[in-house]
């Protein structure tokens, strides 16, 4: 998942759709999020977070996987495919970017959300998450605010003091810089999915990602923002499944 987000932010219904198509779906918390290890006072890089995912595959006894990442998770998935090609059957990069300057820029409208204080109570966490997705969510799709509230409450219970981890993850993203040259090494079949109404990561980031990876397919979803609205699930799931079928 993305910056500061947890495995619970992959909607159950979305994952069930993938399972119904024949996949064994594994969600996990990145380091410094949810119930994974938190690392105060430690700096790390996206390549370390990609190695975490490879280590999880080792622990599960899985030689290879179809890898899907959203936002920062898309960056981690990209690095995983570039540095550990034998472990990635296919790559799906959702609402992410390459790190190249000027691509995937964030709208200035989001500044107040990015620098808000840490929620002190579960109710505050839920209210802030709803306000955030009222801004960054998909204007072209109906939003499931009941699911947003449920996931926000659950994530607060799982990791109430998450701000330090979010900062360290952000530093890892900033330190990664432009990964365009790395992406040229990706050999896994790749699909890049991006919403045309994404304020967190402009769709130019998705376009740059698809251009950097040989043979990558680009799926632009009209009206989708920086979220996974139920109305877009059929398009996204079809894109992931169709891309996975390209794997040897």
Automatic annotation (TrEMBL):
GO terms for biological process: glycerolipid catabolic process. Keywords: Hydrolase. Residues 16-227 form the AB hydrolase-1 domain. The keyword Hydrolase applies. One of its GO terms (molecular function) is triacylglycerol lipase activity. It holds the Pfam family Abhydrolase_1. The keyword Nucleotide-binding does not apply. InterPro entries: AB_hydrolase, AB_hydrolase_1, AB_hydrolase_fold. It comes from the Bacteria. This is Alpha/beta fold hydrolase. It comes from Saccharothrix syringae.
